[in-house]
Amino acid sequence: MKDDFFIRKIKEKDNQELHNVLSSVMREFDVPERGTALADPELKKMFQAYDNHKSSYFVILQNNSLFGGAGISKLKNSNDNICELQKMYFSIEARGKGFGSLMIDLCLKSAIQHGFEKCYIETMNNMNKAQKLYLKKGFRYLDSPLGNTGHCSCPVWMIKDL
Question: Which overall architecture, per CATH, does domain 2-161 show?
Answer without folding.
Answer: 3-Layer(aba) Sandwich (3.40)
